[in-house]
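in:
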């Protein structure tokens, strides 16, 4: 049976995204203890007599989920402090999936590659095409530019390769992007590293989408 919390892998992306979002919202609506849910995700539950909000930090920005609006308007429950900000549906799904999948596992500090994730070898070709190749193609000539474009996303330098940056995509999902410039003997290379606990917060399919999303945000910031 398909995991309803995993990101859709379907050629009909619009339909698949809508279905995945719908399922995630239904699951969130069925939660009885939002405080426990937020503790597992290391996010905040803001409850007042007038409203109940879940505050999520995603890529250095705060997003809010209006718990009481789920039943009334399930397509408009995620907002930001930016007025009229557009939040792509696939990123809304990532936010919901992070909250729903979170197990509260502390970070291990042990770094792993995508191939070491469950089914990572199976999905690696897709991951390499959608993430690593774009990382290398856009930053290998000037690896230090990676550090600059990562700053708006909360990126900090990391000690790998010719340049590397760690971005906290979610509170418990730091992702490290690494570039080797290459020379006359060796081609440019790139890699992406995760804390070994990453699949306690998102399934492998979502990790592909999240990593690709971060890379494209950096590319657009060049």
């Amino acid at each position: 049976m398909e995991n309803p919390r995993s990101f859709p892998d379907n050629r009909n992306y619009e339909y698949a995204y809508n279905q995945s979002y719908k399922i995630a919202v239904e699951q969130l609506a069925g939660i009885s203890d939002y405080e426990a849910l937020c503790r597992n995700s290391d996010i905040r539950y803001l409850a007042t007599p007038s409203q109940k909000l879940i505050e999520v930090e995603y890529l250095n920005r705060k997003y809010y989920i209006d718990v009481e609006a789920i039943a009334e308007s399930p397509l408009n429950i995620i907002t930001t402090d930016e007025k009229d900000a557009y939040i792509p549906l696939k990123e809304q799904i990532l936010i919901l999936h992070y909250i729903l999948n979170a197990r509260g596992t502390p970070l291990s500090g042990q770094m792993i590659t995508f191939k070491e994730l469950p089914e990572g070898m199976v999905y690696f070709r897709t991951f390499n095409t959608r993430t690593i190749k774009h990382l290398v193609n856009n930053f290998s000539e000037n690896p230090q530019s990676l550090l600059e474009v990562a700053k708006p996303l909360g990126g900090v330098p990391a000690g790998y390769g010719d340049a590397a940056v760690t971005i906290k995509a979610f509170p418990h999902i730091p992702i490290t992007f690494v570039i080797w410039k290459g020379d006359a003997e060796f081609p440019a290379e790139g890699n992406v590293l995760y804390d070994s606990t990453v699949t306690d917060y998102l399934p492998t399919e979502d990790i592909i989408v999240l990593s690709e999303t971060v890379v494209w945000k950096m590319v657009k910031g060049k």
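note: The chain has two domains: 13-101, 111-220.
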